[in-house]
Amino acid sequence: MRMKNIFIIGLLALGIWYWYDMQPVTYGHGQIAPDAPKQVLGSKKKFNFKDDYEILPLATFDITARVLSRKRYWTGRDSELAPVDLALGWGPMSDEKVLDQLKISQSNRWFYWRCKKLPIPQQDILYNSANMHLIPADDQIESRIKDAKKGDLVKFKGYLVRVEGDKGWYWQGSLSRTDTGDGACEVVFVKEFEIIDKDSVLSKMKM
Hints:
- The chain has six helices and ten strands, in the order αβββαβαββαβαβββα.
- By secondary structure, it is an alpha+beta fold.
- The chain has a single domain, classed as CATH 2.40.50.140.
- The strands form two sheets. A five-stranded mixed beta barrel has the order 3-4-7-10-8. Strands 5-6 form a two-stranded antiparallel ribbon.
């Protein structure tokens, strides 16, 4: 009987944790990430990663954006490199006034949106959001990425990359913020990652 009670309490605790983890972070109306990502094209040397891969940096990448959705991946070769995808928004796509009117989801390394009526022009939605495959440089950065919740304001730096493996396998994402469809997601090797404190975001919004 005692073990049964412990099991039930454990299930309740897990349920409460899952419910809390799924609650989005909110700030009210206003853009919390007004600027587009910054990138600088340039050639850097390939480097080995996790023994089985070579990574070629294609451009430096620096972004501050709102998490629109997150998706954990467990299977497939790409999950060894990028266990989490974040759908991110900036400019008008970081404003709750817009996002409250959109349904956003992720599946199969894509992100999707739908709405009953466009809150802003479709082009503004497409050009101010992206699904990003994040390759953490180390375990600490991986842990931070996994802690990011829907609604969080995150800032990270690294490289847009091409990843090469054996038998001709490779993975390369977009170098443009204005493309759409297949190949439009970014593959980012993340060297720094930060979740910006909610109080800091709110204080800047009031300025």
